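Batch job 17 of 40 flagged for manual review because the log was empty.
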Amino acid sequence: MAKNNVPAKQTETGFSIVDNPQSAQTIQAAFTEFNLTAADLTRLKIPAGGSIAWEVDTLGETKAEQNLDVIILGVKGNQKAWWATSVDDSAGDNAPSCISTDGINGTGINSLDPTATTGTHKCSECAWNQFESSRSGGRGKDCKDTSIVFFVLGDEALPHVLTVPATSLKVVKKYAMQLLSRHIEPSSVITRLTLEKAMSGGGHTYSKLAMSKTSDLSEEQADKTRGIAKNFMDRITGGDSLAGFASASEG
């Protein structure tokens, strides 16, 4: 008797975005019903002081995790933010004075002159975008360079966002290039995010991002996540969704 050609059942990944057939609709509903922007997503921060544990907020509870296995939906690089007033002197108002979402043009006030007005500025010509401009000393820039990584955790349908500081930008770039050189899209693999303790040239301990691939999704699963990732990134990076995303606590 001939066997029926029944499609093989896909192995569950433990990721809601892959295993739940309603995942795409859930994200779509968040945009449609709640006008979702990048600023509304749950944020993950690289901790200060050399900690090697992530602090993950879920349903009002904060958990410490050594490793985070995620599916990356996209990365938005060339983000810049500058604050005229330090966080300590801002009386709780930590919105940046000037931001750029393309690394080319900044919008806001990029001057310490109290009479300066909001405008558009060339980042390449801005004094605060030059090395050794940091008002806290050292060789760094006073304007903060970051990348934004959008990803999903295993049991959550809506994406999270990680703001990557200048000290870990090379890590993101290297990992992305390793995948792309093998024609692998970030949304088609499971990526592990970990933290390493590092030390700056000035002797300050800080936490540094580490990224590695743990496994591949099947072709069918990858097709699904690629579609979700494209739709999500088209919407989250369109218009003014990224404007004002940065906050002083992530600088």
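Reviewer: the log was empty due to a logging misconfiguration, but the result itself is present. Residues 23-79+145-250 form one domain. Unflagging and moving on to job 18.
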